[in-house]
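Worked Example 4.2. Consider the chain below.
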Amino acid sequence: MTHSTETTAPTDDPFLWLEDIYAEEGLDWVRAQNALTEDALLTPDFGVRERGILEVLDSTDRIPMAGKHGSHYYNFWRDAEHRQGIWRRTTWDSYASDAPDWEILLDVDALSAVEGTEWVWGGALFLRPAEGAPHERVLVVLSPDGGDAARYREFSLETLAFVDGGFDIPTAKSRISWAAPDALHVGTDFGPGSMTSSSYPRTVRTLRRGAGLASAEPYFEVEEDHMMALVLHDSTPGFERDIAVDTIDFYTRRTYLRQDGDWRLIEVPEDASISLHREWLIIRPRTDWTAGGTMHAAGSLLVVPLDAFLAGERTFVTVFAPDPSTSLQSWSWTRDFLLLNLLRDVSSEIRILDPAKDWAADLLDACPPLHSVDAYAVDDEDDAAGNDYWLVATGFLTPSTLYRGTIGGGYTAVKSSPSYFDEDRFAVEQHFAVSADGTRVPYFQLAAKGLVLDGGNPTLLSGYGGFEHSMTPAYSGVIGRGWLERTTEDGRNGVYVLANIRGGGEYGPQWHLAALHANRHRAYEDFAAIAEDLVRRGVTSPALLGCTGRSNGGLLVGNMLTTYPHLFGAISCGVPLLDMRRYTKLSAGYSWIAEYGDPDKPEEWEYVQTFSPYHLLRDDVAYPKTLLWTATSDDRVGPVQARKMAAKMKDLGIPDVWFHEALEGGHAGAADNRQAARMHAMSFEFLWRALTGSL
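Applying the procedure from the previous section yields the following structure tokens:
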């Protein structure tokens, strides 16, 4: 269970009682609020739309994304028949066919029925087999409620059963990796002092087969006020090594290499991201970094042989340098090449680099404008297919397609998602709004062709703006059915808008850094500027403009509610941060101080309070209609902030405030497709009816 912990002076907050997540008094309040919301929203028409969304989520025609391990391709799958899902595998020839023959490895529904626990799939960690041998063992990750806390259990790919007497790490917020066939590097809750203030592992210990957790050998630890400790074993043949990461906060870390029985620090800036691949060290600085007499720009990508770097070499090859419109999003190694996934004004660009030719770069012709395309290696250690790559291409009106290619040999489509709405009726446009400080901020608009610009279109504006997370074009049958295809009495369709505000990573780390701490308001000014631009252009009007966001996006729309209420007619606020005075005391909140600031420091509370919606509420303001939704089992943000916000708004006499809490589902708000369909449909239903005057 997740409870708040009070470590500061007493507060006059009258709704602290709602912070005891599983107390009956609080759950009774939740059930009463749920009943009011469901009574208002769950009409027979709602049921039709909910089933339409569930049909998308349960579709058996969607792409079964797979990961290659040895000679098999593994996939986890949910549909109407498998509510909690099945883990399965097949061969390449079968996978590439129209009707793959899947071998079921684990049926999570059946497991839940046998064990009496509603397990939610969290993934599988493969143990590298001996050379030439098939994969035999994995650690299966299962959450009992959809939260971040999970149980790790050893599973045999030969017997298709959990290993009798095998590794079994109890449910906790753990970070675990294979150390050897008979050993794990385990970061978990070993008892008092073993977890950080952010609720993640502080210590990593080596657990030998047959031993209990209590006898695991200490291996690496970090300070309690750091975010997390992690140890990974790189089992690449010829490059076997242990790597430890002291994650200080979300954006700073120290990485160590195990050498001669001790940990050796890899001496790069603490805010840089690094990765090791065979003989190479790759570094991506988040701020400008001068090394070896050369200044390397924030967001660039640098490569150097690891041994040379450890010997003192500081001359790097710059394989990517950002410009004002282009940023690096990710990279992936095939056997002989480096793939870079870039964004140029939020449209994808992919470069292939050849280290054997002085890192010469070629563009991969696979990225149409206003689309998102990601490239990554299939299996860089496969003798025959080491230079193969996957491409996943999608756009707002382009159902996702999975391609497989070979560097130098082109690519071909493997599978495509079906169409879930009439895309031909709609058009995508990119526009730029001007924020309060003059910054041009892009946004995508998805609307019916021939949109009448008279301010009369119900419009939904969505965004995130945090943690350097980029919001990119993507096909969504849920949005298509739940919003775009819905029509008003005079035949107007819904308009959907995706904002690319600061705080995200669309233009690299500088775009993110521009909205940290005391500059948080820039993200909100950007979002407000887009809202104003939509009205200025005649797309919509404030009464017909709604906004939605979840998690950090919930904080975003919470600030729209409290600071820009005149711009919106309705707000849907999901699994949100809202009480920024106490967020560090709730669930995993302490780990986000690097993003928002520390409210326990008076000088930082001075600015944090300016974007704390819970503290900005007043009883003399006309607020938009508001839906706050969350999940009891969310152990990342937690449900209490949405609870308290709703309770305070109702206590202030603010009308048209609705609340709903899923009693399971984790931070995603849903543990299976049925819950997800209910969540999506409820948000869309509320927004549509609130904006069109039927709520």
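The mean pLDDT is 95. The domain at 428-692 is CATH 3.40.50.1820 (Rossmann fold). Compare this with Example 4.1 before moving on.
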